[in-house]
Design a protein that fits this description.
The protein has one domain: Alpha-Beta Barrel (TIM Barrel). The chain has 10 helices and 13 strands. This is 2-dehydro-3-deoxyphosphooctonate aldolase.
């Protein structure tokens, strides 16, 4: 089971290191393919006054320190095409944010690196249309078809994080997990799916109480992995605190997900007519 977890944004090396240390039991689980996650820049904050992070150069330096100290694989976000090569020197997975999932130049720039490409489905996207996003990356890497097998071979993943439902709310259509898994390995983003965009007058809110319910539902459908941001003290987090899982609560959830997966007869993608 793929698991991507860590704080939403880099706040300090102390915060990164403490979180990385706390996640060690999960990272060392032989049934988990673990990636430590943190963003060096949150370029799509609602307000200009919101904390964005230390930036590309300092952020990658801190992530490289985590990689060296703990031996973790790293995932982080990209926002502009020119950042791809610098990020690829540190990260094992380069993540394209949901709002940028249609940006051809960005997708191609990331696909030209040797790293896994994880594209988050936009909150505004029909899941079936993500096939075209996948095909951009696959063709850049020499493939010719958006299928689960080719995407896995060429290192292209998709992440579900909910769809806009009116203003300030997201819902998860669990059918999208099945639809997208026809043409790529699928990760379920359990924490951003409970986000309430713009819900706190200039910043996004959320309700972390629903994270385990949605995650367990996704596990029962059959996905390749999970994205779950975590913080030692979410109430003091500088970004997305309302939907991040307290680190001490993540362990039980991960065990639940592993148990559910063990009951599934197969994880083969479903062919839809």
């Amino acid at each position: 089971m793929i698991l991507m977890s860590g704080p939403c944004v880099i706040e300090s090396y102390e915060n990164l290191s403490q979180t990385a240390k706390a996640l060690a039991p999960i990272a060392q689980n032989p049934n988990i393919d673990f990636y430590f996650k943190a963003s060096f820049d949150k370029a799509n904050r609602t307000s200009l006054d919101s904390y964005r992070g230390p930036g590309l150069q300092e952020g990658l330096k801190l992530l490289a320190q985590i990689k060296q100290e703990f031996g973790y694989k790293i995932i982080t976000d990209i926002h502009e095409s020119h950042q791809a090569q610098a990020i690829a020197e540190v990260a094992d997975v380069i993540q394209i944010p949901a709002f940028l999932c249609r940006q051809t130049d960005l997708i191609v720039a990331v696909a030209k690196t040797s790293k896994i490409v994880n594209v988050k489905k936009g909150q505004f996207m029909n899941p079936a249309d993500m096939k075209h996003t996948v095909l951009k990356a696959i063709k850049t890497r020499g493939g010719d078809a958006a299928t689960y097998e080719q995407s896995k071979h060429y290192g292209i993943w998709l992440t579900e994080r909910g769809n806009s439902f009116g203003y300030g709310n997201l819902v998860v259509d669990m059918r999208s997990l099945v639809i997208m898994r026809q043409f790529a390995p699928v990760i379920f983003d359990a924490t951003h799916s409970v986000q309430m965009p713009g819900g706190l007058d200039g910043k996004s809110g959320g309700d972390r109480r629903f994270v385990p319910y949605l995650a367990r539902a996704a596990a029962s459908i059959g996905v390749d992995g999970f994205f779950a941001e975590t913080h030692l003290n979410p109430e003091s987090a500088l970004s997305d605190g309302a939907n991040m899982v307290p680190t001490q609560e993540l362990f039980g959830l991960v065990e639940d997900l592993l148990r559910i997966r063990s009951l599934l007869p197969s994880l083969q993608p479903l062919t839809l007519s």
